[in-house]
Structure formats: C-alpha cells, structure tokens
C-alpha cells in the first residue's frame, strides 16, 4: 500500500488472493433487492410489446449501475470510510432510482435519469480522485470511463426531459454508449483505448459479488411465491402450484451454484487476464441469467393466481421465456471458462422451445410443472455428467 490517503483506499491486487465481500457491499445490495422487485412488478403490470421494451431498458440500466459499482469496489477497499460513504450515497441514489422504476416513462423519468447519471458519473469521479498518482495507467482508465459515462449522462438527462417515444430513444442511445464502452476499451481521442492489463481485478471477489446478485434475483422469486401463496386458499391445485414454482427456483439455484459459480470463481482467480474474463462472463453474460430469474418470478405469480384454464400469452411468454433466458445465459457463462457447451443445458433449451409450440393449450399449472421438470432434469444431468471424465 502507498502511504497517502488515496493509496490506502486503492487495493493491492495480488494473484490468487481473495478479498471477501464486505458487509458494506452487502448492505448496498439491499437497495437492489427492492430494484429487482420493482422491475418484476412493473413487467407484470405492463406486459405489452412496448412495456416489455421499456422494462428491458430499465433492467439493463439497473444491472449496469450495479455491476459498475462492483468493479469499483473491486479496485477500492470498502473497509475504508470514504469508500463506505460512497456506497451509502449510492444507496440513496439507488432508492430514488428504484422508486422511479414504475413511472420512469411517465412522471418520474427525470428523477430516474438524474439518479442514474449521478450514480454512474459520481462514483467514477470518486475512483479517479482515489487512484494514487503513481498508478498512472489505472488513473487514465478512470478518466476514460468518466468521459464515456459523462457522454451517456447527457442522453439520460435529455431523455428525462423528453416525453413518450423520444425518451425511449434517448435512453436507448445512452445504454448503447455505456454497454459499448468496455467492448472498445473506453477509447478516447488522443489517448486511445485502455489496456486489458489496466483492468486488473481480484477475480474471486467479482465472482462472489455476481453470485450474490443471482441470490438477490432468486430471493425475489421466493418472496413472490410466499407472498402470493399466503393470500390463497390451500386447495390441492394451489399447493401443487406452490410446490412447482418453488421447485423451479431451487432448480435454477442448483444449475447456477452447484458447479458453475465455484468453477467460475476458481477460473477467474487463476486467469492471466481476469479483467477480460470478468468483462465477458460477469459483466455481460450474467445479464440474461438475472433477467431470466426475474421473468420466472413474474411467471410464478401468474401461475399461483390462475393455475387453471388455458395459458394466456403473458403466462406462456414468462413461463417459457424465463427459464430459456436463464439457460441461455448459464450455458454461455460456463462456456466462457470451461471451453465446452453443456449438453444438459442444450437439452433444456431445445425442450423449452418444443414446449412453446403447444404451451397455450395447457393450463398454467401443467405448464409450470413441465418447465420445472425440464429445469430439474438439466440440474441432475449436469451434476451426474460432471462427475465423470466425459463432460456432457
């Protein structure tokens, strides 16, 4: 560590060393429990093509602000008081952001935009100021990131001031800028792109942080299941639906955590370029995993409230789309460090696509039981196959 106050906040990243996730980071994550709940409820209330597009944009924004904070708390030490105060300030911004989600395309668009832009630019400026001068490449990296986020902030604020379709377009442009920035390594005129070597991170910490976000999303499924079931009569149909949706959540936990999460953590900890793997496997490929779990929570509520009759389009899309998105994310996530595609996950994706053909003819409860069964088969298949030398 360097002797000055800036250096004290900046972590020394050592190979094969794992910084544990701090209580301040876990406290910060509580805001995103609320954000995930807001996204799920907003999707349920606006399940139209335009509504799905708007909620997708809001989800991408929430994920991006969280994952960027994770990168910064990987580089800085959250046990230091100034970094903790940054996280607490970000919690305030996160609550404003989360409470604005249901009406982000109506009355509270500007509040959403201001909270988002202030969180993104504010924490990156903090990183810039906190990076010791002798770490010139890391400091230039912070300057590059600040430049890109400041550019996108203009479109966020402009979108907040605009209305209707203009807001959607301007915010989409802002997200394209932000999502493209790591892919082009934060290139800026005169100074060019950053080097992947500038993205030295503590891989185990990054893996654990993203795994905890998956837990947050799964927690939303459990909350929805419990809260909805508590208001229902305990008939055989309702109890079966309750067991089915909970079984689906457990299967998703098993698919992600039983082999994938730990293997990913080990691989990124050993990687010679952890920054590159973190950008792909954790920054980008965890999005469909988390989105899939949130959509499953929407399906769970629909199935619990209306287990009988024919499945409407909303129920079919959420019941099939959630697990499909989840498996698509996990097969690519595991491929990023294993180098082969899980046959079990491929089976699950194909089975769900086949089920989609006649899903509308089935009662929601039957559809839920079938999707849960597919997910359990995937989980069991992977567990058995990875015990043997021939991976499936």
Written overview of the protein:
This protein is an all-alpha fold. It folds into two domains: 5-199, no CATH class; 203-385, I/LWEQ domain, CATH 1.20.1410. It is 77% helix and 0% strand. It has 14 helices and no strands. The chain has helices at residues 5-9, 23-45, 49-75, 81-100, 109-130, 136-161, 164-183, 203-230, 236-270, 274-284, 286-305, 313-338, 343-358, 364-385. Helix 2 (23-45) packs across helix 8 (203-230) and helix 9 (236-270) packs parallel to helix 12 (313-338). The longest helix is centred in the middle third of the chain and has 35 residues, at 236-270. Residues 1-5 have low confidence and may be disordered.
Q: What is the count of DSSP helices, taking H or I runs of 4+ residues? A: 14
Strand percentage lies at under 5%
Major sheet summary line? none
Terminal residue distance: 45 Å
How many β strands by DSSP? 0
Order of helices and strands: HHHHHHHHHHHHHH
Helix content: over 70%
* Domain module count: 2
Class per helix and strand makeup: mainly alpha
> Which overall shape is indicated by the principal axes computed on the Cα atoms?
globular
* Rounded average pLDDT: 89
Low-confidence stretches: 1-5
What value does the Rg take, in angstroms?
21 Å
